[in-house]
Design brief:
Distance between the termini: 81 Å
Shape: elongated
Helix content: 25-40%
Number of strands: 32
Radius of gyration: 38 Å
Structural class: alpha+beta
Length: about 850
């Protein structure tokens, strides 16, 4: 199943055992079982439920989700149907509304002229009951909760009326005889009108916000009121919405479930809900009245992004009937759009720009994900199954997504969407990133529209630091894909820009400051601020080029860059918990360390420039974590492939033919190199040496030299030295070594030839030694005091030349402290020259 539902609360499993322990009467349990249902969920997560006892009385209880204990609140000794109930945070006051019907269907005697009765009850201890409303329209009740638990002497109660108004009652309480709570001046409770003439309202119990829609000049205007801990409230924003609510039965969201409504009729009405999360996102999900069963239209207003996306989907096969209405579920960074038995659309609300980052499932791909009964989305990814009384915590099922990637994803858009949904799970406990890495290693070349390895590197590194910094989504890329023009099968899309200048945010604290920051970014930031490595690429190529030509930058500048790289390597090592089988980070690899250090410097400057309110130490750690993650992902991909074949560390042996595991690692490294080169991303030090060593193992000489000449394989000092040491001087190996040495830069060639015991290497070493000595040579009168050559030869030109070299060596040693390297001196040169001449003459 694409979504996993974990039972958070089951009204029967969590309440009935407690009732059985208290009552001991099977008749009570039978009656309670039939009538038990959830009425409300308060801000602290406590769940209010009601049932009928064996006398028909309405009983209210509360389930504490922290202690997992039940508490009886109040018994109303009348046979009345409860509509709504709420209890204040101190559990001293209870408000409830009832529809007054007796078993015979006539009105109750309490207020025979009214349909709905709203009561306020003192329950600590149970004492007086006050009638707040006795009207013919239905009433819903909701206590306001402060941000911190406290023993306050005032509570505030919202009354929401079917007659399109909302009132707030101020209830003063006093304590008598110890802890006995009494309502002060209960006959005249102060009240104020919060809103009126609206057609739709939604309560966010977690953040204490009231959203509602008013019709102003035939336009739907969404408004929001924030209730504060100091008992005040503020109108936070107004936003015109181009939606039609005609045919909408007056509807409340999250004020409790109205069990009297006909669900078959509700599914053919417009649907509207508002979702937010802590990052400052604000989404309005809307589905108009169904005019045809052949297609379903729904819209999501991404107010934090400045546009609206309207989707049109075919709900199923021709002639299929949509028996249930559309359901929107808030899953944090995802919104699920769901019609039972037809489709499931997982919308990425954090990065909704491209349709390929949202997963659309139909038919057998969707599976039976959610119960078919009416569902109510609650904050914190909670879902209330209104019929069964169960509360679930909904999460994306990573195991299903991995099954989908392995077995069902055929199109690039499906692979991209499922990959991003899976990486979103990285913030959840129990996330197994190695499963994602394994799939990518096996399918590295499976996509034509994008590079899977690039997508893993960018997306996974992004999500690894996403929780650490605010606004990081504006500063770091989350995907390698910048545009997507392919259609998503089964769903059509229309995108419209929203007039954000009409949206006014009136308060800039907490969540609202983040929302306003998002709005300001959309309105005024052109182009976007995502970090890219273009500056790093130019500077890195410049540094590498200067090192090859012998030029040098400021020693302090280069040292700072290399120190940055050391910090990243240390950060990686502290996070590596288990021993690795692939040997990386075991050599200097100066070029890669320069690239790592440059990226640290540039990324840090980028974040500091745009996050001026964040302390630099936190930014520094975020940068180290981000680049460590990039390097570690590469390492993990190689580990994953190697562990398929062996549980033992890989030991490079050039005198053996490459194994199947080495062939597979080599080809994966080649793809990783191609992916990182285009992004100018660093690789773990030692990567190129390992890659070249595997190339010698796995490729014929012609292909090997072709890879080297085209820059795919780099001849690092470590790799070439290992090659010179490990391979014997067979004819095949000599040909390989000659070909390698001929392609080396002069300085590196001179170094590695010292490890090859061969006349050709002696010749190269001698030529380099002579070239160094003669670099500044000026012809001077011959010093007759120089002794003869140590070799008994009468070849006068050679004798003369050796005498000159000996004199130069003596001069260098006197002036500069010069000493021949590795016993390379004039005698070595003389011996090499004679041997080389002998070979040339065939003697």
């Amino acid at each position: 199943m694409a979504l996993r539902l974990l039972t958070h609360f089951d009204v029967r499993a969590d309440v009935l055992p407690s009732l059985a322990a208290e009552a001991g009467d099977t008749g009570v349990l039978e009656t309670a079982y039939e009538s038990l249902r959830v009425l409300n969920i308060e801000r602290n997560g406590n769940i209010i439920y009601t049932y009928k006892d064996n006398k028909g009385n309405a009983v209210f209880g509360i389930y504490d989700c922290q202690t997992r204990q039940n508490e009886h609140l109040y018994t109303f000794e009348k046979d009345m149907q409860a509509v709504s109930c709420s209890v204040n945070s101190e559990r001293t006051l209870l408000a409830a509304s009832f529809v007054q019907y007796t078993k015979e269907g006539v009105r109750s005697e309490l207020h025979p002229g009214s349909k709905c009765l709203t009561l306020l009850v003192e329950i600590h201890p149970v004492d007086s009951v006050k009638v707040l409303k006795a009207v013919d329209s239905c009433i819903w009740v909701q206590f306001l909760y402060p941000h911190a638990e406290s023993h306050r002497l005032q509570s505030h109660l919202l009354l929401i009326s079917e007659e399109k108004y909302i009132e707030r009652f101020h209830i003063q309480i006093t304590r008598e005889d110890g802890n006995r709570v009494v309502i002060r001046n209960s006959s005249h409770l102060p009240r104020d009108r919060i809103a009126e003439d609206f057609v739709w309202a939604q309560w966010d119990m977690s953040e204490q916000r009231l959203y509602y829609v008013e019709l102003e000049q035939s336009k739907s205007v969404l408004k929001c009121i924030q209730f504060w801990a100091d008992e005040s409230f503020t109108l936070m924003f107004e936003m015109p919405l181009d939606i039609s609510l005609s045919g909408l039965r007056f509807k409340f969201v999250n004020f409790g479930y109205d069990y009297r409504q006909d669900q078959e009729k509700l599914c053919n009405q417009p649907s509207l809900c508002v979702f937010t999360n802590h990052t400052g996102s604000l989404c309005v999900c809307y589905s108009p009245k169904f005019d045809s069963w052949e297609e379903v239209t729904y819209s999501v207003f991404y107010l934090h992004k400045g546009y609206r996306k309207t989707f049109t989907a075919a709900p199923g096969s021709a002639g299929s009937h949509v028996a249930k209405g559309i359901t929107f579920l808030n899953l944090g960074c995802l919104v699920a759009v769901y019609i039972p038995g037809h489709f499931l659309h997982l919308l990425n609300i954090q990065h909704p720009d491209l349709t390929c980052h949202s997963l659309f499932l139909t038919g057998s791909k969707m599976a039976a994900v959610l119960p078919p009964s009416p569902l109510q989305s609650l904050p914190g990814s909670l879902v209330l199954d209104c019929s069964s009384g169960k509360v679930y915590r909904a999460t994306v099922d990573q195991s299903y997504l991995m099954w989908f990637l392995w077995n069902a994803a055929r199109l690039d858009c499906d692979k991209m969407a499922a990959l991003h949904c899976a990486l979103l799970c990285g913030q959840d406990p129990g996330f197994q990133e190695d499963q994602v890495i394994q799939w990518i290693c096996e399918h590295a070349s499976a996509c034509h529209s994008f590079d899977l390895i690039q997508e893993l590197l960018i997306a996974s590194s992004y999500w690894s630091v996403y929780p650490e910094l605010a606004d990081v989504d504006k500063l770091l890329a989350h995907s390698s894909v910048l545009a997507w023009n392919e259609e998503i099968p089964g769903v059509m899309l229309v995108t419209e820009e929203l007039p954000l200048l009409l949206m006014k945010v009136y308060n800039l604290t907490g969540y609202w400051a983040k929302l306003n920051s998002n709005l300001e970014y959309v309105k005024y930031t052109k182009p976007h601020l995502h970090y890219h490595n273009s500056v790093v690429r130019r500077e890195w190529h410049s540094l590498v080029s200067e090192e090859k030509t012998g030029k040098r930058r400021s020693t302090m500048y280069v040292r700072n860059i290399l120190d940055n790289a050391v910090k990243v390597i240390l950060n990686m090592e502290t996070r590596t918990l288990e021993p690795r089988l692939i040997p990386l980070l075991q050599e200097e690899d100066r070029h890669q360390r320069l690239l790592v250090g440059l990226m640290v410097s540039e990324l840090r400057n980028h974040l500091v420039r745009h996050l001026q309110c964040v302390e630099k130490k936190k930014i520094e750690q975020t940068v180290l974590d981000y680049i460590s993650k990039l390097l570690n992902l590469t390492w993990c991909m190689l580990e994953t492939i190697w562990r398929k074949h062996s549980a033992h560390p890989w030991v490079p042996r050039l005198n053996k033919h490459g194994s199947a595991a080495e062939f597979e690692v080599f080809h994966l490294m080649t793809r990783i190199l191609d992916a990182t080169n285009s992004l100018c991303f660093p690789l773990p030090p030692g990567f190129h040496s390992l890659h070249t060593t595997l190339g010698v193992h796995c490729l014929p000489l012609y292909n090997l030299l072709h890879y080297i000449d085209n820059g795919v394989l780099l001849l690092t000092e470590t790799a070439v030295t290992r090659l010179m040491k490990d391979l014997d001087n067979s004819e095949k190996n000599e040909k390989l070594k000659f070909s390698i040495v001929a392609r080396l830069p002069p300085l590196l060639g001179q170094k590695v030839c010292r490890f090859w015991d061969h006349p050709m290497s002696s010749n190269i070493i001698s030529r380099n030694h002579v070239a160094q000595l003669l670099k500044d040579y000026k012809k001077e009168p011959r010093n007759s005091m120089i002794g003869k050559s140590s070799f008994p030869t009468e070849f006068l030109p050679l004798n003369c030349f050796i005498e000159i070299l000996t004199g130069l060596e003596s001069s260098h040693q006197a002036l500069c402290g010069f000493e021949g390297q590795d016993n390379v001196d004039s005698e070595f040169v003389e011996e090499a020259a004679l041997k080389h001449t002998t070979v040339l003459l065939g003697l």
